[in-house]
Specification:
With 294 residues, the protein is mostly helical. Helices cover 74% and strands 0% of the residues. The chain has helices spanning 2-13, 17-27, 29-51, 83-119, 121-135, 139-150, 154-164, 167-180, 184-191, 196-204, 209-232, 244-253, 260-286, 289-293. It is elongated.
Length: 294
């Protein structure tokens, strides 16, 4: 009798989409691994001033570049600076670029796509044709020109990268809104007199969070790679600040004499990018309701 009552109570409680997605995500070992590594990297980046074994400014020119040792776990660079400390501080910049630039891209893309998808008609046609035109522009050259004309400012780097990464998000959001616009809860919101802005903000966007979250985890790696590429070209982060891309650039110049200067920053960037992709793939599978039913 108690067992039957428990089964009935469980059936009454039901299960939400987010709860089911969490259960599916936990079963994906690669996604859990990726999430754990990403969380570790973020925590280390936030606590770097207290965790770093040496001061960021500390250098010993007499020491020079030395391989990994008990005193310097990842070795030192040509200026005698501890490489582990450099990687930890570089991670702060690289992760900040990834998260902030992606936030800028999401803000623009979600707003643009939601308006185009909900309003429809000529407004949608004009807005999406503009997206198509922007897609055809060589944005890498555009970013390089921005950095050359306006200077190598880290804030400009955030805005420039974010401003060119929103186009795909706008298309994804538009398609989601077009399907949600026909749902009963949207028609009910219209019938009670809510404004289009309120419907988009309170009803449409929250129901499209699944694709937004997935795309976010897949955009951050591409943004970090773009920052690393710009830093490698000398157009990204500038000394005395550092990033993983800048450390890789320095390591590439001396890879034959001091290979650890390239290997360790490259491993840090690679591990983070793989973790973000694993997490993104896991979230995509977990939030795919139709796929989970098959």
């Amino acid at each position: 009798m108690n067992t039957a009552t428990q089964v009935f109570d469980d059936a009454e409680k039901g299960s939400s989409l987010w709860h089911d997605a969490w259960l599916r995500l936990r079963k994906n070992k690669l996604a859990v691994f990726g999430g754990g590594v990403l969380l570790f990297m973020v925590v280390v980046a936030l606590l770097t001033p207290w965790l770093a074994p040496y001061s960021y400014e500390a250098q010993n020119l007499d020491l020079g570049a030395t391989p990994p040792s008990a005193a310097h776990w990842l070795g030192t660079d040509i200026f005698g600076r501890d490489l582990l400390t450099q990687i930890m501080y570089g991670g702060r910049i690289s992760l900040a670029v990834g998260f902030i630039a992606t936030a800028v891209a999401l803000l623009i893309g979600v707003t643009w796509g939601a308006i185009a998808g909900y309003v429809g008609g000529r407004v949608d046609a004009v807005m999406m044709r503009l997206v198509d035109i922007l897609y055809a522009l060589p944005f890498m050259i555009f970013i390089v020109l921005l950095m050359v004309v306006f200077g190598r400012n880290i804030l400009l780097l955030f805005l420039a990268i974010g401003a060119v990464e929103w186009l795909t998000m706008a298309r994804i959001m538009r398609s989601q809104v077009q399907s949600l616009r026909q749902q009963e809860f949207v028609e009910a919101a219209v019938s009670v007199g809510l404004s289009p802005a309120a419907i988009i903000r309170k009803h449409v966007v929250p129901n499209a969070l699944g694709p937004i979250i997935v795309y976010t985890t897949l955009t951050i790696p591409s943004v970090m790679l773009l920052e690393a590429f710009l830093s490698f070209l000398g157009l990204g982060i500038q000394p005395p600040a550092t990033s993983w891309g800048l450390l890789i650039s320095y390591g590439a110049e001396t890879m034959e004499e001091y290979p650890w200067l390239l290997i360790f920053p490259g491993c840090a960037l690679t591990l983070t990018l793989f973790s973000l992709n694993f997490l993104g793939d896991g979230l995509r599978d977990a939030l795919d309701v139709r796929g989970s039913k098959d």
